[in-house]
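EI: anyone free to look at a 485-residue chain?
SC: sure, send it
EI:
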Amino acid sequence: MQYAGRGIWLWSFLLLAVAVVFAQVAHQGLSGDVYWQWAAGRWMLRTHQVLKNDPFSYTLYHHPWVAEEWGYEVLLAGSIAALGPVALWLFSAGLGSLTLFVTWVRLRAHSDDGIKAGLVLILIAVSLELFVKDRPQTLSYLLFALVLWILGSSGQHPWRRLVLIPLLWFWVLCHGSFLLGYLLVATDLGLAAVVSTRVSGQRNLGLRTAVLAAAVLASWVNPFGWRLWSYAWHVSTSTVIANSIVEWQSPNFHNDLLKLVIWLPALALAAVWWRHRPGIPWFDTIWAAILFLATLQSVRFLPYFSLEWGIAVLVGTQGWRFRQVKPWIVAPILLAISLIVVVSKPIIRPDQASSSEPVAAVNYLKSKPADARVFNYYVWGGYLIWRGIRVFIDGRTDFYLQDGIFTQYVAIQNLTVNPDIDFRQWRVQYVLWPPFTPLATYLLSDPSWRLVYQTKHSWLFKHRGGWGPAISVPSVKTSLAAGVQ
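SC: here you go
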């Protein structure tokens, strides 16, 4: 197939891939961690300092907090302040689209057939669609793809590797997954040292070593210094987090979409490895295998696996072409499908809260005394923070491992303890919880509590009477004057 035809195919498939990612973002409202990350970014922009102590909770107020994602949070809040709510789309669908574009460039360089490359790209887009949101992981997918592209294209341009030093440093400032980036560079160096030049290209061991060493040293230039490495490793290997957060657990293969985006690439890779074609891309093959195994252990690795497996498959299937299909016929069909994907559901404002967020209940809470203690559902903590309400817990699971707060939350949620004992400890006045769950059902029958507000997605309970003197912490208005309210 001629390059022009391949280009038509790839551009059409790229547009469809971008449409898949954009539709996922545009058809759903904001939810989850984006709210506390936005609030944290505004706090840092207003105070001109990096957050190192918690200003958002009443359980761990002013406790040390390693805000490893502070760079992303500042960028997010600054972009929203400068560009308005549309920045939320840029930090989700925009970063996802850039990731697909970089991946498209890599696929094009290794493909002898536009149809194959396009099909691989669509499957990658479907995988990303499950994870692309306003969160630092989305930025990490782009950085991961960029590192792969630089390493893969630096054979003829070895000095391009120097870009890895600032790129990896930037990754360190934005998300704990930067460990993956350094492992990629270390693997590239290791293969260059042990595999023949015919397989690995120009060795340039000195340059490779210098880039890795400089990137490691540069990573220490951050508000938390070298400790960020140990902290990122601790979070990545925490069994408490892995056992409690769905994204850190093994894939749910009752989900047909997960079956498709995991097992189809795995079968394609198995077929390629079985054929054992000459010129196999060892770097990409090894990392596809590593990330596949990591995905089976924790579904959060699926986007990284999706961005890597395509190269090995395309190289291993060179010579298998779809010659009978004409690009100029199918390209318009792909464009039409792209349009349908985007307009199939109403497009929601980029700053509109998801229907799952307790907006009405929080509006009710905001009419009450500002220092009222709320025991909140884990995933709603970020939204409460954004609205200026102190929380018992939020999406910073690693932070709440301190003092057993996360363990205490889980015990109350599962009713393995008498919740009133813990509520008394914290002088909880309100409980904001999903309806018809064990805790909500318990509170309905507890004479100490009464249901004061309810919606389809949330119930708000108020404690009858008082618990006695409250634990003294600064008011919300004092510590959140930086614009979190």
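EI: The first helix runs from residue 3 to 26.
SC: 👍
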